[in-house]
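Dock fe (ii) ion; give full complex structure.
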Amino acid sequence: MAITNDIIKNKYSESTVKIVKIFTDNEISLMRDLYEELPLTINNIEQKTLKKQWIQNYKKELDIVYHNRIMEVLNDFQMDNLKDKHGDDIYGLFQESFKPLPLHADTGFNLDNKTYKQLLTPLSGFGETIIFKNRWYGESTTFTVDEEELEFIPGTNKNKRSNKHIIKSKKFDQIIHKKFLNHIDINNLEGLEIDTIYKWKIGETLIFDRTHLHSSSSNLNNKKLGLVTFTKI
Ligand SMILES: [Fe+2]
């Protein structure tokens, strides 16, 4: 599939970043309980992140609530978080992070898919996520200006590396860098424009297009726990 076609089909579904309240405090608390129950999927030592897939049928009622509430805000969508061993959709990825995530885009690994929205539901109090206006239409990528890291060859379904997001003539704001993004080389932010600085709040869900470049903020109180769900249409 030519990249231009992918740009067109993904642009069709683009919209502004939204913050919605679709889960009750009790449902958030049930999601936290589910996180405790689920088996560990990934312990990414380099990123200092623990990941657990939301596998269906651990708490069937919660599965239904989660799916229906997303349906209310997105109208039509399909889950795009891999499948479990029975071929059923995984509903998302719980991520417990002890270190801020780098600059990336979660556009997926199949350019034939029409990627849609991603949802971030905070399950712990303090956290910040930075969404940039800039977009990416290739596969899921981590952005870097580090020459050595650019050489990295990812395995299947792992983020590629790229510096193609850089717009050389546009320096990034030094004050915002220092306040929110000091875990990222400021040269890696050249040409980027902030869309939203989202301060995590329990009870809210952040919804944004999967084509948006984004990263964690550098501000992290020991650790944070969030639920991320990827969708396609
Ligand atoms: Fe992400």
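Observed: The two ends are 17 Å apart (CA to CA).
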